[in-house]
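USER:
I would value a second opinion on how I read folds in token form. Give me a protein, with the fold worked out from its sequence. Write it directly below this note and I will take it from there.

ASSISTANT:
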Amino acid sequence: MKAGFALKNGSIISTTDERAAILVYVAPDASEKQQLILTLGLDPYDIDSALDPDEISRVEFSPGCISLIWKQPRNVAFGQQLRFDVTSLGLFLREERLIIIMAEDAIPFSAKEFQGVGSCMDVVLRLLLHTVHHYLGHLKVIKHITVELSSKVSASMENRYLLQMFALGESLIYYLNAIEANGAVLAKLRVNAERLEAPKQQIEFLHDLMVDNQQCARQANIYSTVLSGLMDARGTIINNNVSVLLKNLTLVSIIFLPLMLVTGIGGMSEFTMMTKDIDWRISYSLLLAGMVLLGWITWITLVRIFDMKITYKKTPKENRIRLLQRYAARLGDRISKMSSAPGRHHEQNLSDDGHRAQSAPRSGPPAG
């Protein structure tokens, strides 16, 4: 599909003139490719690069021509699996005539980024800014989807939401790669802007565009790091939910074991024989009440046992440290008592000997 646009009073308007300043080719067919090659002088390799979603971003300068391959986000398709992909875009500026080749989607020239343009180079820079804003919008959507999936994973026991988070992590890696490649193109444009004698206003706009692209790349890197770092934790949450479900099923199975034993014995006419002198309504009501009581007691016992085991397994190291501290304190008290006891006994013996010496009569030499 081919469309022409013209610049008028700082706006981009649609036109049918063959000499339009801006020509946009969306998924060109064979005849349109031949027109691009023969009439407009484009290289077939450049045309294929603009339509290849795996092509790397680059910019090439030649006399009177600037060829730029740019990566832009593709529109999201919300199906069974969320996918945020990137695609390529070709911009070819030749003597105040801009040729845009893209595989899909049309460019919204009515957006606010394209207001106040005065030349084809301004259109190129505004289109690059529009792509950066498109990336930022997709990153916000990815963040909201990640928060929603995280809340669902906390109560999930299947891998569907986890697989969607894996897809989001993969999309963020592709986004980060594309944004960093676009940053290299912007850096090369900034270096060659003065050589191409670009106006000061365009150079300042290009500098601001580089800053916005760097912030976008940093934001994509943060989201990718957080999502990949917490992926193992979310997988552990799912495993824990499955373990809790299996524990509850085990409890239910164990509760019904004694009840099945009672019903098995009573189902062989022994219970009817043993209660033949009692009304069957009363006997079976008592049997039902006894089974409910037995099941309730079994449930309470098992729950307490499981809770005790879980409490002990949660902090086994802390419990051991506390026990060792208690034993060490008790042992220290005993050792201090044992070490102080002989001293006190020796002091008591010395004091007793002194008292005896003072109380004994003095014996002097016999008087002459």
